[in-house]
Amino acid sequence: MASSLFIVGEIGVNDYLVAFAGNTTVEEARAFVPHIVGAVRSVVTEVIAAGARTVLVPGMIPLGCEPQLLALDQSSDHDPASGCIKPLNDLAELHNRALNGMLRELRRANPRTAILYADLYGAVADLIASPRKYGFRDKPLAACCGGSGAYNFNMTAFCGAAGTAACADPSEYVSWDGVHFTEAANRHTACATLKANSPALLDSWTAEARRRIGCT
């Protein structure tokens, strides 16, 4: 236990996605935040009690950039720069502030345990803002595999259903099916987390090792 890395999460993404698919408002969803963060705290506390000494907790993704929610959204409250839904991203940032506050409390209570935060929001937002910098296509909000429309997402024709098709090169896309990220996007977030939390470790690897996992 003491020599292993425990990843606690992602916890909360489905709570928000399912709620919004069921017409929950952003204001109503804000009340979920303390409950979801409390669930994360409970799990982290349990693994520490079981002997974990290194725990990584992923933060919330930018919900307003998810093709599923973009396809469902009928409002005009989109960020002009990114194209993402601003109130949903504000909710994700609220979640992350509460999560980080909770993690600070746990670090004070458990000084012998490394409790790390993975900033998924920042990593994904960076891809959306500068897709070509990381080898992604110019329009990063559409899914690779899906049905139709501006975001290639249809609630009645999920990826794999009749009438849907996958793109030729998933590595150019941030979203695989409108809900889950592609392998290329996940690699980017993993590398961003390594750079933020363990830059010395990453620097100690050979160029070949970094290239093999995509952390150049």
Automatic annotation (TrEMBL):
SUPFAM superfamilies: SGNH hydrolase. GO terms for molecular function: hydrolase activity, acting on ester bonds. This is GDSL esterase/lipase. It comes from Triticum aestivum (Wheat). Gene3D superfamilies: SGNH hydrolase. Keywords: Glycoprotein. It holds the Pfam family Lipase_GDSL. Belongs to the 'GDSL' lipolytic enzyme family. Signal peptide: none annotated.
